[in-house]
Amino acid sequence: MSHIPDIAINLDPTIQIIYNRTLVQLGLCAFSLGLIQECVNSLGDIVGTGKIKELLGQGISKNPVNEKEERRRLLPYHMYINTDVVEAVHLCAAMLIEIPNIIVDPFEIVKKLSSKLFRRQYEVYKVIIHSRKYLIF
User: Can you tell me the mean pLDDT for 79-105?
Assistant: First the structure.
């Protein structure tokens, strides 16, 4: 309602990093309180990009032009947020939402999609299991 995400995109990169870190912390807190939908909403944009470390100020992108600036924006190690935990929490929360939708109607994928990352992982898993089934028998 406040359009803060629209405003944060146009601000200084250090403020964008603070905003992204705040979103991640809110998502982790929502998960610990059992607010699963809020957790998926909060973490979805950050995890969906595939550049979690860069968005949280914990890594450097592979663009050599801005490398000096990005090195200055890096946070000290003691302030790092474990990106594996962030991805795991997002996938667990998305699983809690998506699996009931898949069970109810497995062919109605597009309508009730809440996490593209989880759907991709789920489809890869189905392909692997399906291919192993034929290899075993």
Answer: 87
